[in-house]
Amino acid sequence: MKFFDYAIIYVQAGKGGDGCISFHRARFIPKGGPDGGNGGNGGSIYITADHNINDLRNFYYKNNYIAKNGFPGKNKQRTGKNGKDLILKVPLGTKIIDFKTNVILSCLDKHNQKFLIVKGGKNGLGNINFKSSINRTPYKKTKGILGQKKKIKLELILKVNIGVLGLPNTGKSTLINVLSSSKNKISYYPFTTKKPILNIIQNKLNNSNISILDVPGIFKDSFLNKGLGLSFIKHFKYCNLIFYIIDISLIYKKDDVFNIIDTINNEIIKYDKTLLFKEQWIILNKIDLLKDLKSLTFYIKKKIIQYKYITKFYFVSSKNNINIKKLYMDILYYFYKLKN
Hints:
The protein folds into 2 domains: 157 residues, GTP1/OBG domain (Spo0b-associated Gtp-binding Protein, Chain: A), CATH 2.70.210.12; 178 residues, 3-Layer(aba) Sandwich (Rossmann fold). By secondary structure, it is an alpha/beta fold. Helices cover 17% and strands 24% of the residues.
């Protein structure tokens, strides 16, 4: 499932309804006093958090939102109806940012938390309000005030369970597809994953869902926004576990496996060094391409122990489904224990 974590939208509240100029007319009362009613208030726009929504895709396809105007006042001192408020629903963890000033207006991280983003215009007054001892027939009313308008940015920081990192074309998408039984786009060229892709692994041990987020591949100087950058890693802030997917077949080339791990770590440190303190599993993928699996496995096991932050490592082939079941069951037990 393609994941949308950013949107720019324009919001405009409704205009207040105009006041009414009217005079009471009835049988035997040809010249009654003023009875023009007030207009209704314009509709406001609220943004509310909803835990049933996963991302900001709704705002990607539609980015203009205008609330209803208030209705004008009527005779017989009748007040016009208020314009209907507009409520925009966003996922938990959404930041609302003013586009011009870049000021964070609110961060919605609780279900049903609501924020007034633009207020509806105040109603206009009918001529009943301008009657006085010296002016018994006022031909005066006020117009409704325009509602507030604003251009805002919506940024989502998702609370995922597993974040997946790796260089381009290491088999990240293939592995996640196997684990989650999804069918995301896979090709043999870098940057198949151009946006974050959110998948769900069903935990049969406690009937819960484990969210796993695949982000575009990392390489040297990604923190400088080269390639597709590192901005997607912001979603790893609240994750429990980080997977490093490494193409082990590169051990036959100049790109040593451990240089790749160091490259990823160096880029992360430049972006957010606190991520290195999270539990990390190394997934050495594409073992089906190895010529001498036993000797290389011994070499890698011996050297990978030197990385203190790595708690587990696996030798797998997502293409040929080798050792995937072991990895899958370890994931289920890890999150089962976490919740119990």
